[in-house]
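Second attempt. The first submission of TetR family transcriptional regulator had a stray character pasted in from the spreadsheet, which I only caught after the job came back as garbage. Lesson logged: always re-copy from the clean sequence file. Corrected sequence (207 aa) follows.
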Amino acid sequence: MSIDKADRLWQKGAMQSALDAEGPPARQDAILDAAIGAFAAYGYRRTTMEDIARAAAMSRSALYLHFRNKDDIFRSLTERYLDQALTDMTEALHRPGQTAEQALYAAFVAKDGQLMELVLSTPHGAELMDAGFQASPGLVAEASARTGRVLTDWLVARGVPAGLGSAEELAQTIVAALMGVKSSARSLDDLRVKEAHLARLIGRALG
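This time the job returned cleanly.
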């Protein structure tokens, strides 16, 4: 199947039948896993569909049965990462027997996920982060809002001392601080140090 024909099929909504015939969603997950390695190796701009197809051990025409183009793959990667990060963060916050500082640090680390570790271990990390925001601004904004709600629920259950504002206000402050920490981190170790410092500050304020 040519690339142009694949694109026309997608536009008409006929691509779904091709996807069903190609295999289970696990195949798409495998493609996304392969794409992570390609983006880390070459950066967003230099990575091609041919690179991703090669990493996924499939032909380029087969790759187009699953994803429309490189942007589609990157958006799917971003969505998968954000969903998993939120799930992991929620679980980390509610582990029993933790202090507020411990719970927050565990949540911050869990929210980053393995993808963030990979991003910070490649020289293309800044480019990939920028590409993620540009390719999926709606997803990123939605994920920030969902993160704020998760933190708000946790703070309400735990209790917020007087003088720190409402649980929702504090949650939004934490989300903004996390974004700043992530954007300024020079390495994974630097990120972890800054996350630990943020967790300590907020944890001690919560008591």
